[in-house]
């Protein structure tokens, strides 16, 4: 046995089971996941292209949307290719460090997504409650600072986890009962005192979800007050109509999180595959539906797509 194997406290690789209890259905389950991932790639790449190509869309709302699309691309592409490899080719092995990198990217970009949704709520607040100051408040430099702050927050919160996991001794085997490297799924394989990881993981999740959702809700309380003070019903409808896409994005992102959290605490007897399917749904559903929501509900994007088709016909 080599010296490196003697001193190593972690396995060279983990084995990802996929969806425990549904291994015999992996090929069939992969079909909707593949189509959803394809839609996510096409939709978010199309959004990024449209926002880049149309100078009229180089406004704060669309720049935040471009950030959201880029994050959704990374989130879905970090997990889905490996997941499909498990389902199609039974390629279950993942290098230990690759597993930590996948976990880091998944959790970091989830935190970034939450921050961008909060920034988009702030954008709608300024646009509706302070319309005369919109261009002076949401300058290009402020948007860049918000983007950098979103990245910095995610990196600060998630950087400790891979280093902590690297120093655990994994005596419970290399098999992860999941289809991607989720933090708690890896922690369950470790021996020793993992209480800090458990508490830290829950604290970060609660901090992000509760804090960001609280500020989003406050933004919409102020928005609703401003909308109700408008004189005509048409003006109220038009003002609040600009928020519909953002509300849809919030619901598509946070609903799976809340449902999964409730299921973990209420449905203790639920089969493991139920929780894992919910986790996959959370990763795949927002990247798939967000481009559709914004493409249908945002007039400028909708008009640009129609103009592209009309040019092809001509």
UniProtKB/TrEMBL annotation:
A Pfam family it matches: 7tm_4
Compartment(s) of residence: Cell membrane; Membrane
Transmembrane segments: 25-50, 62-88, 94-122, 142-165, 199-223, 235-254, 274-296
Coiled-coil annotated spans: none
Keyword Iron-sulfur appears in the UniProt entry: no
Taxonomy, superkingdom: Eukaryota
Sequence ranges assigned to domain G-protein coupled receptors family 1 profile in this UniProt record: 43-294
Keywords recorded for this protein, A-Z: Cell membrane, G-protein coupled receptor, Membrane, Olfaction, Receptor, Sensory transduction, Transducer, Transmembrane, Transmembrane helix
UniProt topology in membrane: Multi-pass membrane protein
Gene3D superfamilies recorded: Rhodopsin 7-helix transmembrane proteins (1.20.1070.10)
InterPro entries listed in its UniProt record: GPCR_Rhodpsn (IPR000276), GPCR_Rhodpsn_7TM (IPR017452), Olfact_rcpt (IPR000725), OR51/52/56-like (IPR050402)
Family the entry assigns: Belongs to the G-protein coupled receptor 1 family.
Record's function text: Putative odorant or sperm cell receptor.
Name assigned to this protein: Olfactory receptor
Biological source species: Ceratotherium simum simum
């Amino acid at each position: 046995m080599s010296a490196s194997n003697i001193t190593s406290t972690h396995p060279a690789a983990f084995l990802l089971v996929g969806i425990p209890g549904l291994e015999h259905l992996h090929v069939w389950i992969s079909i909707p996941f593949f189509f959803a991932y394809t839609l996510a790639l096409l939709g978010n790449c199309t959004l990024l292209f449209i926002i880049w190509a149309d100078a009229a869309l180089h406004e704060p709302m669309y720049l935040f949307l471009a950030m959201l699309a880029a994050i959704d691309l990374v989130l879905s592409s970090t997990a889905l290719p490996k997941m499909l490899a498990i389902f199609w080719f039974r390629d279950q092995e993942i290098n230990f460090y690759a597993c930590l990198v996948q976990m880091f990217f998944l959790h970091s970009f989830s935190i970034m997504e939450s921050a961008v949704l909060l920034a988009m709520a702030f954008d709608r607040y300024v646009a509706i409650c302070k319309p005369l100051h919109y261009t002076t408040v949401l300058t290009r430099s402020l948007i860049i600072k918000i983007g950098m702050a979103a990245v910095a927050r995610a990196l600060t919160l998630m950087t400790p986890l891979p280093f902590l996991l690297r120093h655990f001794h994994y005596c419970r085997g290399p098999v992860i009962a999941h289809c991607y490297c989720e933090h708690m799924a890896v922690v369950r394989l470790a021996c020793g005192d993992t209480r800090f990881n458990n508490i830290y993981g829950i604290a970060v999740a609660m901090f992000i979800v509760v804090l960001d959702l609280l500020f989003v809700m406050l933004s919409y309380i102020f928005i609703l007050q401003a909308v109700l003070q408008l004189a005509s019903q048409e003006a109220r409808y038009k003002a609040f109509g600009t928020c519909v896409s953002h509300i849809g994005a919030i619901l598509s992102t946070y609903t799976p999180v809340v449902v999964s959290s409730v299921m973990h605490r209420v449905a203790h007897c639920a089969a493991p595959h139920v929780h894992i399917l919910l986790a996959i749904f959370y990763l795949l559903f927002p990247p798939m539906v967000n481009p559709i929501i914004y493409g249908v509900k945002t007039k400028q994007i909708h008009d640009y797509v129609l103009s592209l088709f009309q040019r092809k016909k001509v």
